[in-house]
Amino acid sequence: MTCIVGITDGRIVTIGGDSAGSDGWHVAVRSDSKVFQVGPYLMGFTTSYRMGQLLRYSLTVGEPGTWDVDRFMATTFIDAVRECLSVGGYARNDNGQEQGGQFLVGIHGRLYVVGDDYQVGHTISGYAAVGSGYLVALGSLHSTATSPASSHQRAEMALEAAADLTEGVRPPFTVIQSE
């Protein structure tokens, strides 16, 4: 139960998230943010606060030192994430398939979606969303793609729409941008 949105113009990445924590029966507004920066990486997570805590405080991975950022993300970055989640006791094994959780990553002007199975997606639309409010947020991001609103404003509008129309998405919202 959450909504994380990401926007990129190819230079600047914006990631925003809500503050809901839910177990399916109860929703609590939490003060620990689902959106943060670790070194050069902007991240926003769904799935589990434990996963987010490990990504935020335990993940150790260098910056892409190659022109092939997609390759770096799918290999070196994901290898570091898998190790971080395994050592932290979070990674799950479902019938022999290792699983983590969903999160967005921004690096070098690019926006990536990391799936439960550690696949790395790089959208061409310039925006993405994950969590229970993702469909509403994607609709908002699509409808504002050519608007004069800033990416920060677009992220907030998408999160507001998700909070209004999706159970389990709550303000306050945190929105961060790369430099």
UniProtKB/TrEMBL annotation:
One of its GO terms (biological process) is proteolysis. It comes from the Bacteria. SUPFAM superfamilies: N-terminal nucleophile aminohydrolases (Ntn hydrolases). InterPro entries: Ntn_hydrolases_N. GO terms for molecular function: peptidase activity. Keywords: Hydrolase, Protease. This is ATP-dependent protease HslVU (ClpYQ) peptidase subunit. It comes from Catenuloplanes nepalensis.
